[in-house]
Amino acid sequence: MEYLLSTLTFTGIALIGVLGTYMVTGLTGLFSFGQAAFLAIGAYVSAVLFKNLGLPLPLAALAAVLVGLAAGLLVGLPTVRLRRDYISLVTFGFGEAIIAVLNNTTNITGGAMGLSGVPQHTSFPLVFISVVVCLAVVVSYKNSKYGRQCLALRNDELAAKSMGINVERLKLITFLIASVMTSFAGVLYVFYTTYVEPGAFGWVVSAEWMIIVFVGGVNSLTGAVVSTVLLTGLPEFLRFASEWRIAIYCVIVLLILNFRPSGMFGQHEISLSFLRRLVRKGAKAP
Amino acid sequence: MSLLEVRNISKAFGGVRAVDDVSLELGGHDIVGIIGPNGAGKTTVFNLLTGIYPLDAGRVILDGKELTGLPQHEIARAGIGRTFQNIRLFKGLNVLENVMTAADPYSAYNLLDICCFTPRKRRREREVRELSRGYLKTVGLEGYEKEKPESLPYGLQRKLELARALATNPRVLLLDEPAAGLNPSEVRAFIELVRTIHGRFDLSIIIIEHRLEVVMELSSTIFVLNFGKLLASGTPAEIVCHKAVTEAYLGEEEAAC
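^ inputs. structure came back:
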């Protein structure tokens, strides 16, 4: 039970990161290899403020999210003007730079040894509520003019501009919301694990989130949620295969993308109205 | 008083002077045409007007407002809407959403409404949806709302481009070869559609078109471009009889004049 709960908690935290990646990569088509750095920012800023400076937890969390927002502005402002491939490079560089900073400020962060002795304050219900709120915001965003315009600019930036869409501003807004959400996930993370080290936030994590979004279906939020649960839970189920675990995981991902290139869900969503239609159809059937 | 003034605009790509010192004028509630052989710089003129390329020289003024040097989206919001020669619809969105996207920049709600799930968002969304349905109806695309744009036949895709351009609420509508790829009966219907739109909305239209019948029937004034330069301008009757035009564009001398 304990084990299941801890797996679910980690899945929930990863899900918030994936939701951020979904907004940036799935909705807007920007490949950010630095998303996990925001997780690091959230975790380290809140932990250091709480543990070393004795700030109350809510204040430390708020500060961590604000620092994440500021970092998002710092990376976002210059990059939204760039071509898509350069955005990947800049965010990649940013992510790795954050790791390097964490590794080299040993007296504050503990360096490569990691930061330990953080008290555990995150519980599963808190993570669950956070996930629900984040999910609701992302659904609302997707089903708004912002979401529509993101999809439009992902598809054809030039035409989007000609329709009066401020493409750069929209990219920045989306990127910032993702930064804030991911930083908050970082706060949840550090106060759950009680220990963090810089190595846990490299570009590999960002890439994993992107893989999850693509396996789920780039256009589908439902897909992102389902594939997060499957792919972060999967390695746990595959424990019996010990060293073959990662290889099996990769094969499964490759198979899905090979046979369903647009992901498990493509662009379909399971929404309330969809379920209602399904029930009605079922009722009509003899 | 002219609505759109284009003064001596120029654009060179490397050594090629794609548009060379071209001036146009467009009155309020008017339709004009731009014709010229392939590569004469017609589409480049549109791309300069909408800010896709920066101007090398010259000015663009819409109803007294200077548009020169503004970013693309601001020019669009100032009132220059357009369609594209090679149809550029948003493939990830359905037909209705394509039109809504163009009306969205005017929809007054913000991020706070999204994060706090206010009723204002729902109300504004409904307004935009109704408005967009209206545009779809105008061009005759009602009933196709949920379709994917790429699954529509070519002629309907052209109409959808038109509806989307209308949704940007333009003062001046630029149509880039809107009748390309249409069969003769579709061309007739299209001419009527442009007339209807022009009658219903307070806007002026500039049409680039190779089908001379379209330009001749609709335009009050025709501008002829050749090698980036303005060769002639005048009423359709004048253009048909213009000596330089018939030589450069229509090839042989017309017996009619």
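Chain B has a mean pLDDT of 90. Chain B touches chain A through 36 residues (CB under 8 Å).
thumbs up if we can close this ticket
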